[in-house]
Amino acid sequence: MKKKRILGSAVLSLAMGVSMFATGAFGAGVQESQDTYRVLIKGPSAEQAKVKEQYGKRWDFGKQGFTTEVNSKQYQALLKNKNIEISQVEQYTIDARVEGNDNGKGNGKNKGDYTAQASYPSDQTPWGIQAIYNDNYIQSTSGGDGIKVAVLDTGINRNHIDLTDNVEQCKDFTQSYSSMVNGSCTDRQGHGTHVAGTAVANGGYDGAGVYGVAPDAELWGYKVLGDNGSGYSDDIAGAIRHAADEGVRTGSKVVISMSLGSSGKDSMIASAVDYAYSKGALVVAAAGNSGPSSNTIGYPGALTNAIAVASLDNTFVNGTHKVSDFSSRGNPYTDGDYYIQEKDVEVAAPGGGIYSTAVDGNYTTMSGTSMATPHISGLAAKLWSSNKYWSNSQLRAEIQRRAKLYDIKGGTGAATGDDYASGFGFPRVR
């Protein structure tokens, strides 16, 4: 039996400092103040061992090298070491806009500690949920039982009334490796909590909250981005590998959902995505928000072993959903080949004006391919839970097949078939 919703019961420590613009997943790789340097060290094993002994290690990626943090003086010394190869670790970011909060509290910007009121949402099944279920009158959702959805983001508010029963793992990868399994995944930014709600929100204790696509799925909240919405690629790569290994350890099907990115390809993340796919996980990632120009898709969405998700608006052209202007596009010269190559959009989903769970315990609206991604992650969990014998490649093929059934090319102006704006199209539950 579900518990009664208690208003005004949670006291949350928040320092959002949200600096978000119109689109929800991507920013360029930005390095922070150079008082410290996060670096990747490569070279002969004996030379790597010397550096590890001197400076320690953060993540060890075997033949790919290891990462560590050094100060400016140490960085200059490492650059002079001709026996090793050193490079700065790239940063990945989110860039989403909070468009509104129906409870009149704003988005928490510049606030410190305050009492969160667990109010009721204005819409239990927002337009994106109705669209992916192909039902404008749906009042609740179901599915996803037994499937793990690992949300790699700014963390989650694990006490949100619509998420708390789903949370199975909560880990912070922005700390050192030794402390990343500490049960902490605090979200002070809001992006991760919003994304998680679209994928798995369960309606709350009393069923009067908001619903995600797969409310019965288990949520793994992996904090890989800091409170400013940016994070290092080695932490992200480590979290990807950890999620895949946890799937193997627990004998579970895992969907890895990443509403983050960068314009550049990072070798650590690329290798981690390949590793996760080889271990049976399904990787879903945002296409990016650098549209409408072609060839603007970002990473890790651009990788062939990740499903790149474009954004759709709740507006129609020729009777079909319009691809958001901000949504990154792939390569137009691969239109209609029905084959996913690097830098191709694979599918599209609702991403414009998406209403979901807010970090203060309430609800809010954001836009971006960040918001489109968890619709597909939730769909993957729902489909997989009913077909657990499927491999990740079989699940991916089914998602593509369903996208073709609901072709949205009339809304993009592109040629019929696999196109650079919406990929195969918009896959739905039914």
TrEMBL record:
Keywords: Calcium, Hydrolase, Metal-binding, Protease, Secreted, Serine protease, Signal. Gene3D superfamilies: Peptidase S8/S53 domain. The active site is at D153 (charge relay system), H191 (charge relay system), S370 (charge relay system). It is found in: Secreted. Its main location: secreted. CDD domains: Peptidases_S8_Subtilisin_subset. Residues 144-423 form the Peptidase S8/S53 domain. Belongs to the peptidase S8 family. This is S8 family peptidase. It comes from Mesobacillus jeotgali.
